[in-house]
Amino acid sequence: HYNIPNHCLLLYLSCRVVKPDKVVETGVYKGSSSAVTLQALEDNNKGKLFSIDLPGTQQNPVIDSSSPYNSVKYNLSDENDVGKKIPVDLEHRWELHLGRSDELLEPLLNDISPVDIFSHDSDHSYKNMMYEFKTARRYLSDSDLILSDDIDWNDSFEEFSNSYSENWIQLTDIVNTNIIENDSMVGIAEL
């Protein structure tokens, strides 16, 4: 039996249905969702994943007091561990950018637009999530999909989706089986 986080399943299925040319994600860590996205692109025989990640050190975790779970420690990957779960045979579809999303996202989107799918899983503060959603929105193609993990940490995804989308959902208890791990609340908005 597999244990697939629901945001990974959502990414895989979205990529298989949309068949994107370009997917942008923020937040890589060790690369579980990146690997799933890359596998979907490979299964489609097209597409590229552009990732932004801010590596840190295991010794100095980031504390996020905006989490609804009090303080959460992000054990950021050391730079050489970022994306280490990505199989070598999928790396030809992957471009990694190291740094802060508030510094790298807009220049990257400007260079590669239009983007078919944007996925957020980086800094889950309201300010950063809203910045990423609004920035990505301006560079989306007709596919217009924004996905986000941990949307229960604040109201940014719901507020953004209510403002820009008639078609959005949040997935909390999609399926609780041995296949899908109900690890967090995820959302998808079609703009």
Largest sheet, strands/sense/barrel: 7 strands, mixed
Poorly predicted residue ranges: 173-182
Share of helical residues: 25-40%
Q: Helix count, per DSSP? A: 5
Widest sheet: strand order?
A: 6-3-2-7-8-11-9
Tally the beta strands: 11
Helix/strand order, N-terminal first: EHEHEEEEHEHEHEEE
Key terms for this structure?
seven-stranded mixed sheet, alpha/beta, globular, 11 strands, 191 residues
Written account of the structure:
The protein has 191 residues and is of the alpha/beta class. The chain has five helices and eleven strands; from the N terminus they run βαβαββββαβαβαβββ. The protein has helices spanning 6-18, 32-44, 101-112, 126-137, 156-164; strands at residues 4-5, 22-26, 48-53, 62-64, 72-74, 94-98, 115-120, 140-148, 167-171, 180-181, 186-190. The chain has a seven-stranded mixed sheet with strand order 6-3-2-7-8-11-9, sandwiched between helices. Strands 1-10 form a two-stranded parallel sheet. The chain is globular and about 40 Å long.
How would you sum up this structure in a few lines?
This protein is an alpha/beta fold. The chain is 31% helix and 27% strand. The chain has helices at 6-18, 32-44, 101-112, 126-137, 156-164; strands at residues 4-5, 22-26, 48-53, 62-64, 72-74, 94-98, 115-120, 140-148, 167-171, 180-181, 186-190.
Helix and strand topology:
Blueprint (H helix, E strand, L loop, with lengths): L3 E2 H13 L3 E5 L5 H13 L3 E6 L8 E3 L7 E3 L19 E5 L2 H12 L2 E6 L5 H12 L2 E9 L7 H9 L2 E5 L8 E2 L4 E5 L1
Parallel strand pairs: 1-10, 2-3, 2-7, 3-6, 7-8
Antiparallel strand pairs: 4-5, 8-11, 9-11
Helix pairs in contact: 1-2, 3-4
